[in-house]
Design a protein that fits this description.
The chain is of the alpha/beta class. The chain has seven helices and 16 strands. Bound molecules: zinc ion.
Length: about 240
Amino acid sequence: MHQYIVLKIEMPSWNTTEVIHPVVLADDNHRVLIDCGYAGSLPKIEEALIQHGIMPQNVTHVILTHQDHDHMGAAAAFKRKYPQAQIMTSVIEAPYISGEEKSLRLIQAEQLQQSLPPEQQAFGEAFCNMLRNIEPVRIDRALTLDEELPFCGSCRVIATPGHTPGHISLYLPALNVVITGDAMALEKGKPVIANPQFTLDLDLAKASMERLFSIGAETIVCYHGGVIRKEDVIL
Ligand SMILES: [Zn+2]
């Protein structure tokens, strides 16, 4: 059995509701959760897994595509409750997620804070504080870029820098699916650069999105926006 399951998790965030799409890869020996949601989203992740017949205590691995709080915010809580799950991310992102290095998003937010107009200062400060309170998580295995993992036949790590320097996406040839993380987002059915204003290197991000398209997979799953089929892509 080789299967991928797209979860749909709704989280209140500031004055809106964010919808995110972690993915589970399932084969005879593995249950792999790709990205782990916001701080506080563990109960929703557990609920979504169980709804799809995946017991959280059977999750063997968690792959974090990058260091952002909406992807790794619940990873420490997940690991505490389900210590069997091996936490993995790219070798470049690992020190930011494990807390050895200060989060690049926090550095960016603190720099932005100085140029915010007075009416946005309070929000900016609250955002920085939220990032400061994200719990780091130890990385059990740092992935080299372009590594091949033994999930669902083959799960290829694709380096997709730009959004963050060590961002990774995943390609599963047997399932004909690409899981983008934030290397691509869907807005109204259109693939776009996720949050271009916060993208750390826009040129790299564009090249990464091209790299994902060039794979030609039948299905693309975006963490923000969900599933798009090749034939539905509007460029
Ligand atoms: Zn994100």
